[in-house]
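Batch job 17 of 40 flagged for manual review because the log was empty.
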Amino acid sequence: MTSNQQFLKTKLKQSDIRKIYKRISPYYDIWSSLVESKTHKRSLKIANLKDGHSVLEVAVGTGYFFSEIVKRNLTGRNEGIDITPEMINKAKKKLGKLSLSNYTLKTDDVFQLNYPENTFDFIFCNYMFDLLPEDQFIFILQQFKKILRSNGCVLIINTTQGTHWYHKFWEILYKIHPVIMAGSRGISLSQYLVTAGFSDVKKEFISRLTYPSELVYGTIFK
């Protein structure tokens, strides 16, 4: 796919991303609660997640969002993966405090999702695509499509490009030094969902403490 959208190119390799998130894992929850929590809550509301579903969260991080999924889906299947072992270890400690066992957390690569077709009702993915090269978007979305059941839904949160001057601050930081932004730059993913075969694709813009995020979601029919 050739995109007419104008957003910055990724400047970091996957190995660089692992190193960054290993380093910030001890205090990532602070950032998440301040900047990402509003978008997380909106994602859960849109999904209207009911108990008994099969759910995958990709890029689970420290488990901040995943713990809310687990608490809502007590009798369902909850899977969480991340490429950074330190993030998974942090998530395991957080989930361990819930005294629940209805989940699996593991280190895994989004490019090698070893799940059978038609496994999940929901796939959540928070702040991952904004770390990746644009030419990898469709491949990953097609992997999501494959392992979703018919009527399954994908809900993706990304850093995006803002509409006001103060949103540009984050883009400037990325241009100066992408490591400051943990490799995250503003993107727009909705057209890629359409191209990958998702239906009823919608996008919402959410700003928290001037940080611009998008919530993009769509359904797959088989």
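Reviewer: the log was empty due to a logging misconfiguration, but the result itself is present. The mean pLDDT is 94. Unflagging and moving on to job 18.
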